[in-house]
TrEMBL record:
Protein's name in the database: Gamma-glutamyltranspeptidase 3
Biased composition (Basic and acidic residues): 113-123
Superkingdom of source: Eukaryota
Matches recorded under InterPro entries: GGT_peptidase, GGT_ssub_C, Ntn_hydrolases_N
Span list, region Disordered: 82-123
Amino acids binding L-glutamate: T61, V62, N63, D85
PANTHER family assigned to the protein according to its UniProt record, in alphabetical order: GAMMA GLUTAMYL TRANSPEPTIDASE, RE13973P
Positions annotated as active site in the UniProt record: T43
Coiled-coil regions listed in the entry: none
């Protein structure tokens, strides 16, 4: 696959660590970005491949900027608003999609999501 070498390039953990500070953030260009997204809703993803080509990845999100708008006073963690992923019969979603009955809130139900687990291998 032609995209493989550009998608999985080697960056040393030390070079990443040197760009992280506890007291400030920087514009995306500062962090060695190659691609950028137009709308950032507080979702992050990382993928790691080791020298034996074992891979692990993780996606985490608070859904929209500042999640549910609630900061836990005991942990300092911004709480997500993933309940917003459910459809509400009387509301149009922020993405202008009509409410989907299969995604209405029900007991023991998970909302439909745009998270897309995937696996890449070569050969």
């Amino acid at each position: 696959m032609e995209w493989y070498p550009t998608c999985f390039h080697r960056i040393s953990p030390k070079s990443i660590q040197e760009k992280i500070f506890d007291n400030t953030t920087f514009p995306p260009e500062y962090y060695m970005y190659r691609w950028n997204q137009l709308r950032d809703h507080g979702t992050s993803h990382f993928g790691i491949v080791d020298s034996d080509r074992n891979a692990v990845s993780m996606t985490t999100t608070v859904n929209y900027p500042f999640g549910g708008g609630v900061l836990s006073p005991s942990t300092g963690i911004v709480l997500n608003n993933e309940m917003d992923d459910f459809s509400t019969p009387t509301e149009i979603s922020p993405d202008k999609l009509p409410p989907a009955p299969t995604n209405f809130i029900r007991p023991n139900k998970r909302p439909l999501s745009v998270h897309d687990p995937h696996h890449c291998s070569q050969g």
